[in-house]
C-alpha cells in the first residue's frame, strides 16, 4: 500500500491498528483520485487473501450499491488471476435489475471471462421446505408444524425472511404459543389473517 495507506485508514479507521499512521496523500484530480483508490483497494485485497488465509467477500443487495462501489468491484473481478485466494459472493434481486443495468453487463462479462464462476438464480422456497424451516424455528416436528405452515405460506411466498417475520407476527398476536402444560407448540392461526403489508413493514423496519 505504501504511502497511500492513509486512503484506506480514512475509509476503515481500524486499519490504523494494523498498518500504523501513514502520511497524508498527494492531492490529485477527481478521476485520478478515483483510479488511485480502486487500484489501492484491489492491492489491499490481494494482501489479505493468501493461501494461508483465504478471504470471502460477501455483498448482499448488490442492486443498492452506488457506482463508486461497483467500479471497485469491476476492477477487482476483472483480473481473478490476481486474487486466487479470494472468494467473492455477490447477491442481488434480479427482479429489480433490468437487462440494461451495469450489474447485468458485469454478470455477462464474468460468464465470458471467469473460469471458476457459479451463477444461479434462487427461487422461492417450496412449501415442504417452508414447513421444515417452520418446524426448525419453532423447535417442533414437521408434522406438528404443517398447520402453521399452511397459514404462513400464502403470506411469505417462500421468502425465508418473511417466513420468520410471519411467525413473529403470529406469536405477537397470540396466533401461536407454547402449551403451558408442556405439550409443545399450539396454534390458533385460523382466527388470524397475516397481512402481507404488515409483514413487509415489519421486515423492513
Please give a structural write-up.
The chain has helices at 5-11, 16-19, 30-48, 67-78, 102-113, 127-137, 142-156, 160-172, 196-204, and strands at 55-59, 86-90, 176-178, 185-187. It has 205 residues and is mainly alpha-helical. It is built from 9 helices and 4 strands. Mean pLDDT is 83; it is low at 197-205. It has 2 domains: 49-122, no CATH class; 127-204, no CATH class.
Q: How does the helix and strand content classify structurally?
A: mainly alpha
Number of folding domains? 2
Radius of gyration: 24 Å
**What is the oligomer described by this structure?**
single chain
Query: What is the spatial order of strands in the main beta sheet?
Result: 1-2
Question: What does this entry show, briefly?
Answer:
By secondary structure, the protein is mainly α. It has nine helices and four strands, in the order αααβαβααααββα. It folds into two domains: 49-122, no CATH class; 127-204, no CATH class.
Secondary-structure blueprint:
Blueprint: H1 5-11, H2 16-19, H3 30-48, E1 55-59, H4 67-78, E2 86-90, H5 102-113, H6 127-137, H7 142-156, H8 160-172, E3 176-178, E4 185-187, H9 196-204
Parallel strand pairs: 1-2
Antiparallel strand pairs: 3-4
Quick tags:
mainly alpha; two-stranded parallel sheet; 205 residues; 9 helices; single chain; two-stranded antiparallel ribbon; 2 domains
Amino acid at each position: 500500500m505504501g504511502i497511500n495507506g492513509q486512503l484506506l485508514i480514512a475509509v476503515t479507521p481500524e486499519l490504523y491498528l494494523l498498518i500504523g499512521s501513514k502520511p497524508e496523500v498527494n492531492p490529485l484530480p477527481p478521476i485520478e483520485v478515483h483510479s488511485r483508490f480502486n487500484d489501492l483497494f484491489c492491492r489491499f485485497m490481494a494482501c489479505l487473501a493468501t493461501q494461508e488465509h483465504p478471504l470471502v467477500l460477501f455483498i448482499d443487495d448488490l442492486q443498492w450499491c452506488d457506482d463508486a462501489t461497483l467500479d471497485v468491484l469491476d476492477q477487482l473481478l476483472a483480473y481473478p488471476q490476481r486474487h486466487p485466494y479470494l472468494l467473492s459472493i455477490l447477491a442481488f434481486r434480479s427482479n429489480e435489475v433490468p437487462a440494461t443495468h451495469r450489474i447485468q453487463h458485469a454478470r455477462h462479462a464474468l460468464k465470458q471471462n471467469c473460469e471458476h464462476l457459479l451463477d444461479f438464480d434462487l427461487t422461492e422456497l417450496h412449501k415442504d421446505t417452508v414447513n421444515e424451516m417452520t418446524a426448525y424455528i419453532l423447535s417442533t416436528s414437521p408434522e406438528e408444524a404443517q398447520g402453521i405452515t399452511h397459514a404462513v405460506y400464502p403470506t411469505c411466498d417462500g421468502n425465508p425472511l418473511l417466513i420468520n417475520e410471519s411467525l413473529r407476527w403470529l406469536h405477537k398476536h397470540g396466533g401461536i404459543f407454547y402449551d403451558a402444560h408442556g405439550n409443545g407448540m399450539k396454534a390458533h392461526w385460523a382466527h388470524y389473517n397475516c397481512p402481507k403489508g404488515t409483514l413487509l413493514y415489519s421486515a423492513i423496519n
